[in-house]
Design a protein that fits this description.
Blueprint lengths: L3 H4 L2 H12 L12 H5 L3 H15 L14 H11 L5
């Protein structure tokens, strides 16, 4: 069984987000803007939150969406809502 740290790694989150954004994992940078760089819309942002909830069992409130514009921001929110600091 993988440790929680491994399960919440940036690399595992990158795979999840890349699938939602329909890009290759190597194309998804830590600071790339989802809207500007990957043409993501609000539906994709909500899908990212839904997949995080299904995959990790961690709910990130939709109120956080305006701040979740990059992979690193989503990762920080994931850790924060999991009870860890980024």
């Amino acid at each position: 069984m993988a440790s929680t740290e491994t399960a919440l790694s940036l690399d595992s989150l990158r795979v999840l987000v890349a699938e939602v954004l329909e890009v290759e994992t190597y194309e998804l940078t830590d600071e790339g803007d989802f809207n500007e760089d990957y043409d993501a819309d609000s539906i994709r942002a909500i899908e990212i939150l839904a997949r995080i909830d299904m995959t990790y069992g961690i709910e990130i409130p939709q109120e956080d969406l305006p701040d979740l514009k990059t992979l690193s921001a989503v990762h920080a929110a994931l850790l924060r809502h999991a009870g860890r600091s980024a």
